[in-house]
Specification:
This protein is an alpha+beta fold. The protein contains 11 helices and 9 strands. It starts with 20 loop residues before the first helix and ends with a helix.
Length: 357
């Protein structure tokens, strides 16, 4: 059950995204970090937001995160916020990477950035890496550990961690429904649904917040790092850029939007980006039951959170397609996203029908 040969690695730096490694080294030295020379620089290909590099020095293995070039909305790629969340959270949640430093001086590499220590391990993506095999019983245990880590996060003492200013307090669910509804309307194109029925249903069924806690807001297997010597052990949690204070069940609902089961249909399987269809993985209903039991929360009908998670994912996909449709990007991978948006509308409607609400 080990996978030491499948530890996640970075690759060649993409053209136009080169990093001034000498300038970074000088900046690190100014912080008192004992690095020598210029590091070997590689780049991680995963993710569609911030650029992530690996800096390999003889005695240090570091990660650098920065926003894409040409970014105008700093709030969408706030390196300072992402850095502060992790630095504040580390003493209370050891799976967070160790922060090294934040650079607000954009003259160093042309953008704000931060550096952290690398967590070497296996990241479970659409499928486990070649050669990595888990028995069904171990897969089940990994699934339970993943949910236990989420429950642990939701129990963090936010004031003690100094993160009370991250959110706006009660009313999180309502703000999310209305905010994402506005984004949906603005990103609409002729070949995608308006989601008018889904939006109306969500607004008519907004529940009271079950509580306010620190939520990751992008909780998936491919944001976790597994111990190469024990693949059921989660040693790292990555990508905290969307973390905020909100309702824990919204975090769970957002996670389920990406949870593909072995028995799902063709279109749902097209969205798969984590190995949740492996033998031994929980079904979505089992995930909800397990989380509610471990967290002590009680909800009579989880359909609202599941529908909202899918709706939010649909709007994210529609925003990407909107950029392609209006020739703001020519990436051919975005050409047929509109088909998935139509599927998400159908899936939301089906869950609503099955809920009886």
């Amino acid at each position: 059950m080990t996978g030491s040969g499948a530890v996640d690695h970075a690759g060649k730096v993409r053209a136009g995204e080169e990093l001034n490694a000498e300038a970074v080294s000088l900046w690190l030295q100014s912080l008192g970090v004992p690095v020598e020379g210029v590091p070997e620089v590689t780049q991680f290909s995963g993710g569609a937001s911030n650029w992530t590099y690996r800096l390999q020095y003889p005695q240090h293995d570091l990660i650098l995160r920065r926003p894409p070039s040409g970014t105008k909305a700093k709030s969408a790629h706030d390196m300072g916020r992402e850095y502060t969340v992790q630095k504040s959270l580390k003493p209370f949640y050891p799976a967070v990477p160790t922060m090294v430093g934040l650079c607000d001086d954009e003259s160093v590499i042309g953008a704000q950035f931060y550096v952290m220590e690398r967590i070497a391990g296996i990241i479970p993506r659409r499928r486990m890496p070649d050669g990595v095999k888990l028995a069904a019983t171990d897969t089940r245990y990994l699934c339970e550990n993943m949910l236990d880590k989420l429950v642990e996060l939701h129990r963090i003492d936010v004031p003690a961690a100094g993160l009370s200013s991250l959110g706006k307090g009660n009313g999180y669910v309502q703000r999310q429904v209305f905010g994402w509804s506005e984004r949906c309307v603005k990103a609409h194109t002729w070949n995608t649904p308006s989601f008018s029925y889904v939006r109306a249903w969500l607004k008519a069924n907004i529940p009271q917040d079950t509580g306010t806690c620190l939520i990751h807001n992008d909780w998936r297997f491919d944001n976790l790092v597994l111990d190469p010597q024990d693949l059921t052990n989660i040693i790292g949690v990555l990508d905290w850029e969307m973390a905020t204070l909100g309702d824990p069940l919204m975090d769970l609902g957002g996670m389920l939007a990406y949870w593909v089961e072995s028995g799902d249909g063709y279109f749902m399987k097209m969205t798969q980006r984590q190995p949740t269809a492996m033998p031994g993985m929980m079904k979505r209903t089992e995930v909800v039951d397990y989380y509610l039991r471990k967290s002590g929360l009680n909800v009579s009908n989880f359909a609202f959170y599941e529908v909202f998670g899918l709706f939010r994912l649909a709007v994210i996909a529609q925003q990407i397609y909107y950029r392609y449709y209006h020739r703001q990007t020519r990436n051919p991978a975005f050409k047929n996203i509109w088909i998935m948006v139509n599927y998400f509308d159908w899936r939301c409607r089906r869950i609503i029908r099955q809920s009886g609400n």
